[in-house]
Design a protein that fits this description.
single chain, about 375 residues, mainly alpha, about 0% strand, globular
Length: about 375
């Protein structure tokens, strides 16, 4: 057992992986409601909820297997994980992940710019730049700083979403009831849920560095099963509020800003947008940190020392410069609508399919090993 695991708290073992997964997934589309409109609202209020529950179940299953396999092979960065799972084919995931990071950081940059412009009319590049600086600073400080950010931003996020639901029910609860009573086709929710789950579940390998706190395979499975509901709960609360303005809200670039204007509570409007910025920060930092840890693993193996803060910051600067340039040229809606569906198929091919065949088979046929045997206890 590693030193980190020996002193692990209950929070670090069971809740931190779910908070970290939520941090990577929430990002620019989920936090603003744009992804929810794209993949769930088209199936109607009830169809959207069915799709979200289905996506959460898929996340729980895949996260549980991912966490258990990572601990089995002692792989706490994505390169080590896929070397163990795919052998020389690990490079296929590397290529897919680089595309993913460029795309999601571009989405985050576009969203940060849109938030700043919606709030106080600042030029879009200012919000994008502030987000980039925050990501660089957090990731330069290393794993400990990233984990603390996951914890405290998550607490803020759950509290704000709960308050949002209460205010929404108070202000336009009658419209929510009407939305859910409207008879509309619920077709497509399985595909929407599967698509949304497929490209987002890559977060399960993005957050591998936080799994060093696990003390057993039982911890890994429980943490994975909890991760799905923890990740989807804020989205469900937000989606319920969106139903009040179904179907018109589906065309809004920032559904969150639209709903906040309907609430017309300036203080809460600012609080919610601050929370979204925090969500963008934790998502972006999680994605960049995964690349830092992947490089750090190679540096440690070849040179015997860790990646320093300066090198981590430089990697972040190079990544973010490329991604923010993409954001400014394409725009939020087009990025989410076209790029994410491509990623869904890519990650099904290079991550989900090998994990649920090769990885699961290895887990099930090694009950006699100390690590795998813990799953049966």
């Amino acid at each position: 057992m590693s030193g980190a695991a020996a002193g692990s708290s209950w929070f670090q073992r069971f809740l931190l992986p779910g908070f970290a997964l939520k941090a990577v997934i929430i990002g620019g589309g989920y936090a603003t409601g744009r992804e929810l409109a794209e993949y769930f609202l088209a199936s109607g209020p009830w169809g959207g909820l069915f799709g979200m529950i289905f996506a959460a179940l898929l996340w729980s299953l895949i996260a549980a297997v991912t966490f258990a396999y990572a601990r089995l092979v002692q792989a706490y960065d994505y390169r080590a994980f896929f070397v163990a799972l795919l052998g020389p084919g690990w490079i296929a995931f590397e290529a897919a992940y680089v595309i993913f990071v460029v795309l999601i950081l571009a989405v985050f940059g576009a969203t940060a710019g849109a938030i700043g412009h919606a709030l106080i009319g600042m030029p879009a590049f200012v919000g994008t730049l502030l987000l980039a600086i925050g990501i660089i600073v957090i990731t330069a400080l290393g794993t400990g700083a990233v984990e603390r950010m996951f914890k405290y931003v998550s607490l803020l996020l759950y509290a704000v979403y709960a308050l949002f639901l209460l205010l929404g029910l108070w202000t336009f609860g009658d419209r929510i009831a009407v939305g859910f009573s409207t008879t509309v086709p619920t077709t497509g929710w399985l595909l929407g849920g599967a698509t949304y789950a497929s490209y987002n579940i890559v977060g399960a390998v993005v957050i591998l560095p936080v799994l060093r706190h696990l003390t057993s395979q039982r911890d890994a499975v429980i943490a994975g099963l909890i991760a799905g509901p923890l990740t989807m709960l804020p989205a469900i609360l937000f989606f319920i509020c969106m139903v009040a303005f179904y179907p018109a809200i589906g065309v809004e670039t920032l559904p969150s800003d639209f709903l906040l204007r309907q609430l017309d509570i300036p203080a809460f409007h600012w609080l919610f947008q601050l929370m979204i910025f925090g969500a963008l920060l934790e998502s972006g930092a999680g994605a960049v940190h995964a690349i830092n840890e992947r490089i750090a693993g190679v540096v440690q193996a070849r040179r015997g020392h860790d990646l320093g803060p300066g090198a981590r910051a430089l990697i972040g600067i190079l990544l973010l410069t490329l991604c923010m340039a993409v954001a400014n040229r394409i725009g939020l809606i087009d990025l989410i609508a076209s790029g994410y569906r491509f990623l869904a198929w890519l990650f099904l091919l290079v991550f989900v399919a090998p994990l649920l065949t090769i990885g699961l088979a290895r887990l099930l046929r090694r009950p006699s090993t100390p690590l795998a045997g813990e799953m049966l206890s």
